[in-house]
Amino acid sequence: MANYHNLSNEALQEKYNTLQDAYEKIASQQLQLDMTRGKPCTEQLDLSQPMLDVLTSASAVKTENGLDARNYGILDGIPEAKAFFASILDVSPEQVIVGGNSSLTMMHDSIVQFLLHGVSEDAAPWVKQGNVKFLCPSPGYDRHFAICEALGIEMIPVAMTPEGPNMDEVEKLAAADPQIKGIWCVPKYSNPDGITYTDNVVDRLATMKTAADDFRIFWDNAYTVHHLTDEPDELKDIITAASKAGNSDRVLQFASTSKVTFPGSGVSVLASSESNIAFYKKNLSIQSIGPDKLNQLRHVAFLKDKATLADHMKKHAAIIAPKFQTVLSILNEKLGGKGIADWTNPNGGYFISLNTMEGCAKQVVELAKKAGVTLTSAGATYPYGKDPYDANIRIAPTLPPIQDLKKAIDVLCLCVEMVSINHLLHK
Amino acid sequence: MANYHNLSNEALQEKYNTLQDAYEKIASQQLQLDMTRGKPCTEQLDLSQPMLDVLTSASAVKTENGLDARNYGILDGIPEAKAFFASILDVSPEQVIVGGNSSLTMMHDSIVQFLLHGVSEDAAPWVKQGNVKFLCPSPGYDRHFAICEALGIEMIPVAMTPEGPNMDEVEKLAAADPQIKGIWCVPKYSNPDGITYTDNVVDRLATMKTAADDFRIFWDNAYTVHHLTDEPDELKDIITAASKAGNSDRVLQFASTSKVTFPGSGVSVLASSESNIAFYKKNLSIQSIGPDKLNQLRHVAFLKDKATLADHMKKHAAIIAPKFQTVLSILNEKLGGKGIADWTNPNGGYFISLNTMEGCAKQVVELAKKAGVTLTSAGATYPYGKDPYDANIRIAPTLPPIQDLKKAIDVLCLCVEMVSINHLLHK
After folding, report:
1. Which of A62, B217, B218, B394 supports an S-S bond with B192, CB 3.0-4.6 Å?
2. ipTM of the complex
3. Would the keyword DNA-binding be found if you checked this record's keyword annotation (chains A, B) (predicted)?
4. B83 and B232: one domain?
């Protein structure tokens, strides 16, 4: 396939005309394909349907320490749920709080606690420390950035590399500015790039000097067990690494079963140092009498242990890996070798990250939308919705049936080609 | 029964000696009776056991508008849950957000929103308005007061009367001080007094002048359907009253199914003006992707409608009303006519409020604890845990089996008598 950068304007124009004909045909079909969010598909949801059926006997509603899970009591999660998540995250049950249906809520609430109360008993509330800033490896997760924006926390973008955030940048910024109080990380199969941080990146995050002594790493390990291959990525345990470096309170690790069982009806978890857990629990005691323990029981009864969970996740992979392959093969077929886009090939997670030439992403998303294919807004993966390169598009392959997915990616590729050629013709 | 105020010191001392003998016998039994919280008993929880069994077919997990409740989507509650709670609270579905498992969390989060963002788009955040104060009708609910204390909101106690809060006080304070931003109300079967606010009190709250134009009423209608008799109290609809008075944004009404189905695994609801709901929803969108929709479906499938809910609540009453009667008859038998205590006889809710002579409650609770009966701390029903009269003791009759309840109240009465006599002897 010819690299478009080497083609004459005439050849480009000819291609454009052909593409435009194809586009108009597709646009006339009035497609309605929604690719905006990383949602599991119906077949994935069906995998956990038996979980709705595990608490039907009276004995099934008792926790392992004999409490009636239907009543009040237990703020930090039932013991078997704490043990389950501790085993998944390689921490002790004392380092875990098992919460409600959303790890996003736990992250939000952690930041609100830090704003209003500080990061610990002795620390000053962030609201009393002037302008608070967060480092935001980008592209990243739009809902992380939305929390900062809503709470008035200034976001400083940091480039992502294939190894994780650009650590030279991170270290320099964190060491220089005491107003930088935190960093957002999706360390495994990152959203949207699918990158797993290298051991070196994890170690540097765990050990780096920070000007703020109340600096916190928000370690959103959302995709820790969400592999797409039989040779999954390994992520170094940052809690142990930070603890060894004398920074045991630096890391708050979050995870959930939203994409394991049911989004919205899953279980969330926070893992951290015992002192951070105690402080979170103290604040939580004001906000809640306790989590939904019946749903925690359901999860433990259904997911059982690390091995059963791994088997369950393989069933997810069997459903969604072919969807990722479909996207990748269309991208390769339609855009490969043309010098107008590159994309990731992740070993896990929920996204493929597509990068157009600079200045093209917004137009691509608009053009696709006109043809009935709704993508995540261009820019959404950057703080304040502003991609400085206007290049990144997040593809979420899991939800649509494979025929719809093919159509949507065909349209996407068509749009990338058209916008790119237009760009080359007018530069 | 002789009024103890009329007895000679010798007669009192003789009584005391007899009571002390009885106390020592009971103390030697090493009872372990926990009366601290208003928890449903096992028989009550069993009433809702069938709810765990309603979502076992694939069709049962669809919402009435055809969405798969197992997946992401819907921030403010599924349509059938909004309609259900709207009918219970006499508002329109557009005035309702159906949330997660805790109305306490919704109240806490509302206050946090007001602190950080203000009460509306145009309002200044409370954290930027200096010292924020709340009116706290007392005795009241300790967890309301704990939220204020944790968030640094100054609490101003206001006396409760048999009609509701002392409205002369409330109106005077609210009109005079713009730093007073809110009031806590449990308007029906109040915690702990079991008082239902009169129409006049509701109207005065809805129409009063407030110096703060961002004043909010936190209307915790926790016990709205929790009747103990066939002739339940009626509470005037404050949302309509406030709206008619031009104060449509003044009231935030909260309720939950915690004591209808399962505490911790229930569903919470916020009802307010449409503009308040829109603002809450905007803030909520940063904190959460959505509530547990499967649990909302479970509730609607099980509780169905207003009439089915009312039948269900009658089953609760059949279990707990005899426990209230047991407490009342022991109090009457042991303490009646002695001039040392009075107590409430509520038509609903979860508590009986016992008032000792001034300066006695703490000692009573301590003495009972030594005999193995743990009561809610004396003072807990007042802001900062400080009952200025040291008189109020909250009795929670629902949880213990009736035999245990009898023992516990026997001990309590014994302790009230002993402490009262001691008080009379040394005054």
Report:
1. B394
2. 0.96
3. yes
4. yes
